[in-house]
Write a structure and sequence with these properties.
Length: about 290
């Protein structure tokens, strides 16, 4: 039986990797052209909707996120499709330690509160028959791309032998390798009929410090690479003129507090899911995508 997935934000990070993963798994992949397609019409006949929409550079989150959420819920309600949403850890606020589906959502930042309201809207819609799955992960790793925190900041000076740490160099931070996220999304889509109407599923990914990353790259490349604190003061100077800098400063706390995303629920639901080996990602692909 053929299965159809509608990809929203097909040119973005989540959209690109999801489209490839679903296609490789034998799904019919349908894209949305926002310039000419009606989202409700385009969703008709789709079994799953991947919500890869996200305003670039955090632009107009307060206005656009609720609007996008309403549109996606409306399309899912009309078509009966299950929605899979990439969740993040903004909702937790300044929490340390293990983060899972039971961790309270107590964000005080503006973006954290917006995400809390977004997820609450999906949970409320589940009472009206809309099935939503939040696959929650840390910062994205998208090999060869410079529009992630890993690519734009942490590895931006690796050719000079430096891995920039956005927090204390020994503090571990959660990262998400996007091909793995997309693979898990496909597997969850295949099991959607066995899941609840609203699911919050943490995605463990990779938990690593800048020191560990620097050592891994050093060992692989045979070249001394060291971890060094990122000079946040630069962003304070730039923030009045560059909105992205302002938005990054609001989330600085995430890199100061050691945390780890739980893998218990995902492993229970998808016991056959096998993530890409950590060394393959952090050494072979990341190091080779840099100019070390």
């Amino acid at each position: 039986m053929s299965k159809t997935v509608l990809i929203l934000g097909a040119s973005g990070k989540i959209g690109r990797h999801s489209a490839l993963a679903f296609k490789n798994a034998g799904w019919n992949v349908r894209m949305l052209d926002r310039s000419k397609d009606d989202i409700v019409e385009r969703s008709m006949g789709a079994d799953v909707i991947i919500n890869g929409f996200n305003p670039i550079g955090y632009a107009n989150w307060a206005e656009d996120i609720p609007k996008i959420t309403s549109q996606v819920i409306g399309a899912a309600k009309a078509s009966g499709a299950t929605v899979i949403i990439p969740g993040n850890i903004y909702v937790y606020g300044e929490r340390v330690g293990l983060l899972d589906e039971n961790t309270p959502h107590r964000a005080k930042t503006r973006k954290g509160r917006i995400r809390i309201e977004m997820e609450a809207a999906y949970e409320k819609a589940s009472q009206d028959g809309v099935q939503s799955i939040i696959l929650r992960a840390g910062d994205f790793i998208d090999i060869g791309r410079s529009d992630t925190m890993m690519g734009a900041l942490m590895l931006s000076k690796v050719d000079k032998g430096i891995v920039q740490s956005l927090g204390p160099i020994e503090v571990k931070h959660s990262f998400c390798y996007l091909p793995d996220w997309a693979k898990a999304a496909v597997m969850l889509a295949d099991k959607r009929n066995e899941l609840s109407q609203f699911e919050d599923i943490p995605f463990d990914g990779i938990n690593i410090s800048a020191v560990e990353l620097a050592k891994a790259i050093s060992d692989k490349m045979g070249q001394n690479v060291r971890a060094k604190r990122f000079p946040w003061f630069i962003l304070y100077f730039l923030s009045p003129f560059w909105k992205v800098a302002y938005e990054m400063l609001e989330m600085r706390y995430l890199y100061e507090l050691e945390h780890k995303i739980s893998d218990e629920k995902l492993n229970r639901i998808l016991p056959d899911f096998v993530p890409t080996d950590k060394n393959t990602i952090m050494v072979s692909e990341l190091a080779n995508s840099s100019s070390v």
